[in-house]
Amino acid sequence: MHIVLFEPEIPPNTGNVARLCAAMRVELHLIEPLGFSLEDRYLKRAGLDYWPNVRLSVWPCLAAYREQDGACKRLVASSSRSGTPVHRFAFTPEDALLLGPETRGLPEEVLQEAAQRVRIPVYDTVRSLNLSTAAGILLTQAMICTGALDRVDQ
To answer: Which domain holds residue 14?
Structure first.
């Protein structure tokens, strides 16, 4: 399982997702352009001292990530507008959880590339959740569905 952030914009969000990936031993893939430098102090601060445990790859575009050897087989895009509710979706260990830029979400052409779409049901009091919060919800549900969370607790 992978987490893929498409053109992330806010360093602390990416740092928080990196810490999540370190905690769950999940690869993190960043698709350029990034809205920050990987040397950004806010990015580093959010990831704390866990950066050595993050399996991080940076790609010039989504196609380059998809073409890599060993890439996850199914791209599962997160959308606040459409998709199967996350608690009803059948995740697999080969899924790549794709999340879009904080200010605009995934563009329609990227959503079209995804094999599946999922959404986190929320009341209409907010438009969407914070990127790192959404990544945590999606990854936890995916790990529950695939039994991967049981291995973390051993």
So the answer is: 2-152
pLDDT of residue 40: 64
pLDDT of residue 151: 81
Residue 54 sits at φ, ψ, to 5 deg, of: -90, 125
What is the number of structural domains in the chain? 1
Q: What is the pLDDT of residue 152?
A: 78
CATH number, domain with residue 40: 3.40.1280.10
